[in-house]
Amino acid sequence: MSRDALLVMDVQQAIVERFAGVESAVGYLPRLRSTIEAARAADVPVIYVVVGFRAGHPEVSGRNKTFSALVQSGAFAEGTAGTAVHPEVAPQPGDIVVTKKRVSAFAGSDLDMVLRANQVGGLVLTGIATSGVVLSTVRQAADLDFRLTVLADGCLDADAEVHRVLVEKVFPRQAEVVGSEEWVKGL
């Protein structure tokens, strides 16, 4: 029998700080915390996905436009403050933390192995940014035949219009898209 898991993706100190001035970020962390707490109370596994690299970023090619700028700054080196999950939604005992090396939660991580070992067949996606980790993970998870739910208000993007188009037009082709409250009521 398969079950669902809640994925909390890229809600790390350095990423949350970059979204501090975004209007849609108001209330995001408290809403996400409530969703996480409800999942735990319903025995839905909570899996955190974070981006992290070894010191010196040997995993990053200079050809990778997205990540190559991180090499110079040293950003997201494992163990640095910016890579930690934001304390307002920090993992608790029993939660799982998976480290990825690219945009998708599956790329360069053992997420697929963790999900299959825990008999997870459905994913409930949250994270920052809607146009980054959420989009990439929806696409890859759909190709891997997972049942998908995207919590529209559990995702955050710097561009409100991009977020709207993704949750209203793109994601519904591969996932159920609902609000956090609606999902929590169904637990």
From TrEMBL:
Pfam families: Isochorismatase. One of its GO terms (molecular function) is isochorismatase activity. The keyword Repeat does not apply. Keywords: Hydrolase. SUPFAM superfamilies: Isochorismatase-like hydrolases. The keyword Hydrolase applies. Residues 5-182 form the Isochorismatase-like domain. This is Cysteine hydrolase. It comes from Actinospica durhamensis. The lineage of its organism: Bacteria, Bacillati, Actinomycetota, Actinomycetes, Catenulisporales.
